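Quick question, first post here. What does this chain look like in 3D?
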Amino acid sequence: MHEAPVTYAAAAVTGLTPGRIGPTVVAVVALVAVVIGWLALTRRTGRAGAVAALVLGLLGAVAGAAFAVTADGGLGTGNGLGGAIVAVVLGALAAALGGLALARSRSAARPPV
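> Answer (accepted):
Ran it through. Tokens below.
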């Protein structure tokens, strides 16, 4: 006899699962760091904003990478891989903006030679 193949319906993953909470928080921190870095680059927050964007951006990128490495499944499985990737990208962007703003603040503070 020939039997029909068995198919299984995947359970839909909705809501904020435990695996999504950490990467989501880290992505929000990295997004805040991007905003601070942008404001520091436009010289609205000064040197403190540049340092804050640099530190928070590095924190977001490293924590996002840690979540991405430890995620058990792929995208859409509820393990937070998507949020971790977003956190890495935003964290790197924030660190770059903060570093650029910090370099500008240093060059502006130097007297001309």
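The CA atoms of residues 66 and 84 lie 8 Å apart.
The chain is about 70% helix and 0% strand.
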